[in-house]
Amino acid sequence: MACCFFIYLPGLMIVSIVFILKKIWESLSKIPPVPKLENEWWGPGKSGEEDTSIKPFQINISDEVINDLHHRLRNTRPLAPPLEGTKHEYGINSNLTKEITDFWLNKYDIRHREKFLNQYPQFKTKIQGLNIHFLHVKPKETQGVKVLPLLILHGWPGSVREFYEIIPILTTPQKGRNFVFEVIAPSLPGYGFSDPAVRPGLSTPQMAVILKNLMLRLNFDRFYMQAGDWGSVIMSDMSILFPEHVIAVHNNHCVDISPKAILKRILYGFWPSLIVEKKYEHLIYPSKKFFLGILARTGYFHIQATKPDTVGAALGDSPMGLAAYILEKFIDVDGALTKRFEMEALLDNVMIYWINNCMTTAMRLYAERYNTKNIDLGIDKIPVPVPTGCARFHLDIAYFPEALLKDKYPNLIHLTDHEQGHFAALECPKVLATDLYDFTEKVLKL
């Protein structure tokens, strides 16, 4: 009998392993219920009667703030010289940091840029205790075209400044298109000119509640969305929580970082041809190179997800340090900064962080998103239920083949590839706008 047992042992082990793997896969594939989130109060004091008025807003930088900025830029300490033969392997090269500082001090015309930033109608309104800032740009010509409400969201270390070049394209009727967009572009809570929360817990699902309420206050019960970076996470959360309000979403940062997706990425590493075209295979395989690349490019992530206030203390005190920390994220793969971006545009974005002293409150989003309380909501495991378009930019942090996106975006009706990078609205506004128009035409035909 013992001999018979050993004969069957290999088969029993195989069956046991298959059974265990099946249970693991079923656990990873289980979709949790959609959480119910209330209109939580995030401002000072307790929830009460709220001023629902919408007030015009203009950026007005005081002479005191400008003089203080110039004083700090003039009196920065000399930086440690870069190591010989290096570009940005150790972080932003100090020679480039000095160039940025010199440009900011001597060539960046703050009053001229202030006028530029005020070119679009801006407003503030209080929602759940927070003053929320937003651009609201209506198309000038609407005869013969449908006007579609579009909520566009930025991420970190971005701001509404990313959208200044794409807004005219979205709000101007395009040849051969029978629709145009009315654009609402808010500063995320804790970013730019929007108030930060005064107590813990304001993560992307809770921001989705606030921004949904913003659209309802503007009398948009149903609307389109476009976003990248953190904006894309908020956008996905909003479509999951409030699919009755979100018509469709266009995403230039489609990702799925659920345990199931990570496991699939590893398993497909043995057969890359099953999920990705040969010409794009180098973007995700070999797996070791891919994951080491992610690790090398996300050094900021861990500290911001654990101790944002610590690094925030330094970045809120040194404009040179703030510029170096932000603009390092915009450097091209070949080490260039102004090859794809204008220096004035980059410093406009830095200025928004500086004059509002909001880097600490912006970085807190990482800590709020990646903690047990928020993870336990399970929203990362819930598919986006509305029609989705994904514009993949190859210089972004990570490339996701369609096979790795289908679980998160089961209604993926539009998928395109582009050569540019992460900050698409600022880098290539025509490319992103055209992609959004193409996607919207598909949605309208549905």
From TrEMBL:
Active site per UniProt: D229, Y366, H422
Name all Epoxide hydrolase N-terminal domain ranges: 54-163
Intracellular or extracellular location(s): Endoplasmic reticulum membrane; Microsome membrane
Protein's UniProt keywords contain Transmembrane: yes
Q: Which InterPro entries match?
A: AB_hydrolase_fold (IPR029058), Epox_hydrolase-like (IPR000639), Epoxide_hydro_N (IPR010497), Epoxide_hydrolase (IPR016292)
Annotated TM spans: 6-25
Predominant location category: endoplasmic reticulum
**Can you name a GO cellular component term?**
endoplasmic reticulum membrane
Topology of the protein relative to the lipid bilayer = Single-pass membrane protein
Q: Which UniProt keywords apply?
A: Aromatic hydrocarbons catabolism, Endoplasmic reticulum, Hydrolase, Membrane, Transmembrane, Transmembrane helix
Q: Does the keyword Endoplasmic reticulum apply?
A: yes
| Gene3D superfamilies linked | alpha/beta hydrolase
A single Gene Ontology biological process assigned to it is: epoxide metabolic process
Concerning its family, UniProt says: Belongs to the peptidase S33 family.
Cross-referenced PANTHER family, in alphabetical order?
Answer: EPOXIDE HYDROLASE, EPOXIDE HYDROLASE 1-RELATED
Q: What does this protein do?
A: Catalyzes juvenile hormone hydrolysis.
The identity of this protein, by name, is Epoxide hydrolase
Organism this protein belongs to: Henosepilachna vigintioctopunctata
